[in-house]
Amino acid sequence: MPLGASQVRGASSQQPNIVLIISDDQAWTDYGFMGHELIRTPHLDQLAATSVLFDRGYVPTALCRPSLMTLATGHYAHRHGVTGNDPSPKYAKQGSALYQERRAQLIGYLDRFESLPQRLQQLGYLTHQSGKWWEGSYADGGFTHGMTRGFPQPGGRHGDDGLKIGREGLQPIEAFVDHAMEEEKPFFLWYAPFLPHTPHQPPERLLAHYRDRVDSIHLARYYAMCEWFDETCGQMMQMIGDKGLENNTLVVYVTDNGWTQHPERKGYDLKSKQSPYEAGVRTPIMFRWPGHLKPSHRSDLVSSIDIFPTLLAAAGGELPGDLPGLDLMPSLKSGHPLARKQIFGEGFAHDIADIENPEASLLYRWTIRDEWKLLLTYDGEVNRYQSTHPRAEKGPQLFHLRVDPHEKRNVADLYPDQLQTMVESLTQWYPVMERQTLTRTR
User: Fold this and answer.
1) What is d(CA 244, CA 27) in angstroms, rounded to the nearest whole number?
2) Per-residue pLDDT averaged across 120-144, rounded?
3) Distance CA 146, CA 381 (A)
4) Which of 91, 361, 409, 420 is most buried, judging by how many CB atoms fall within 10 Å of its CB?
5) 3-state secondary structure of 19
6) Domain check: are 330 and 349 in the same one?
7) Nearest to residue 106, comparing CAs of 87, 126, 131?
């Protein structure tokens, strides 16, 4: 989106630089600061120690593309329309003209909104995309600079050239930061490296540390990938510090979705990625801004849907009235607990059965209120992932997270009033055709 001269002049010298770090496929437990006994994450441990750390952070959707689209637009997947990673090949052969048309239509859904990079650009920011990005090129997303060519370019999917970041160093980011400093403009970094995402091919120097500490080579590789990702975050923090930018840089951390490595094969356990269970949707969320935010460890319920309004507010932007997330900045600065006690999420199939009807692929709605979590299941089309999708139990699932943080026992039958109250709140949040609800297997 082009900038007018008045928009540039309106940029404040007090605006922070913003670095958004997005981990790719990592469980909420898989950090030193979250208590993992083996995985070494010293740089993220240091970030956590100097941040406002929310250990009960969540993403509304446990799949990368819709999760990233929520960060870019500030809206839930059923609203922004990108509910899965790809159109279903069941209804349009992969590579066909119709399939390509549907890919383009999905990317076009971004045009319904002013993205976070667009809004920051209007406030005088230079913005840079690296790593995962599905919605066309970096320019399609409203970034002034970036790495991803995107569809319809050959090989343009989910980040293409941008996926080199981290795995092959940070030089493009450093060059961009130097340019922003020369231009005397605030900057925004979208750092979404393909880490610890598969392929799990860590450097041998890291793998060697874990090889003899676990019985599974698959776990060893994944643990080493987590440490490799941590190293790149340390390099990012070092670069920001070396350039004298630390005190005026807001660093935000989140992951796109969870991952529990299967110990006996490549791939993930079923109740993690693509599922609404804690291993799929929970993530630490951190905010570091020296001199502005006092480091603390908090257990308020926060969601990645809050990141858009919070970053826009930090940059001095006016918040759109239709954003469902909260501007966390007042609570971050004051330390006061959030008044909100409930968050919401949803889950859809990897392949989108009907790109104009989210309910066709709907698998879950879920909500957490205080210490209670409710999952409702639906019969949306799963398509090519049907044989592996985590739907062992159908129907309402109610968990008391304080006593059962890993969701081992469904207590829906024991607390009917709690169940009904939370079902009603889900209906108010996102009404769907209740005829799709599956009966519980007894």
Assistant:
1) 32
2) 98
3) 35
4) 361
5) strand
6) no
7) 87
Q: Which two tokens stand for residue 39?
A: 């995985």
* Same domain, residue pair 281 and 350: no
- 145 and 253 inside one domain: yes
Tokens of 124: 């005088």
Question: Would residue 22 count as lying in a domain?
Answer: yes
Question: 151 with 234, same domain?
Answer: yes
What's at 21, amino acid-wise? I
Q: Residue 131: what pLDDT? A: 98
| DSSP designation for 354 | -
Return the closest-CA partner of residue 83 out of 102, 105, 61: 61
Taking Cα atoms as reference points, which of 71, 41, 9, 51 lies closest to residue 325?
A: 71
Q: What is the mean pLDDT of the chain?
A: 92
Q: Smallest Cα–Cα separation from 407: which of 436, 358, 360, 364?
A: 364
1 pLDDT higher than 70: no
Write down the pTM of the prediction: 0.93
Residue 340: closest CA among 431, 429, 278: 429
- CB atoms under 10 Å from CB of 93, counted, come to 10
Element (H, E) at 102: helix 97-108
| The residue type at 33 | F
CB atoms within 10 A of CB 355: 23
In a domain, 435, yes or no: yes
User: Residues 295, 373: one domain?
Assistant: no
Amino acid at 327: D
pLDDT tens-place string over residues 55-98: 999 999 999 999 999 999 999 999 999 999 999 999 999 999 99
CATH code: domain of residue 298: 3.40.720.10
Beta strand extents in 93-223 (DSSP E only): 126-131, 145-146, 187-192
| Strands (DSSP E) found in 29-176 | 52-58, 86-87, 126-131, 145-146
Does residue 261 sit in the same domain as residue 350?
no
Check if the beta carbon of residue 74 is closer than 8 Å to that of residue 274.
no
Domain boundary pick from 305, 321, 338: 338
Given 294, 313, 338, the domain boundary residue is: 338
Residue 263 backbone phi and psi in degrees, to 5:
-75, -15
CATH number of the domain encompassing residue 387: 3.30.1120.10
Indicate whether 368 and 421 sit together in one domain: yes
Q: Which domain holds residue 442?
A: 340-442
Six token digits for residue 145: 């600079």
pLDDT per residue as tens digits for the range 35-58: 999 999 999 999 999 999 999 999
Question: Residue 221 domain-assigned?
Answer: yes
Confidence band, pLDDT 50/70/90 cuts, at residue 270: confident
Q: Are 344 and 356 in contact (CB under 8 A)?
A: no
Rounded average pLDDT over 94-119: 96
Q: If you search the block for the tokens 């569809």, which residue do you land on?
A: 151
Domain count within the chain: 2
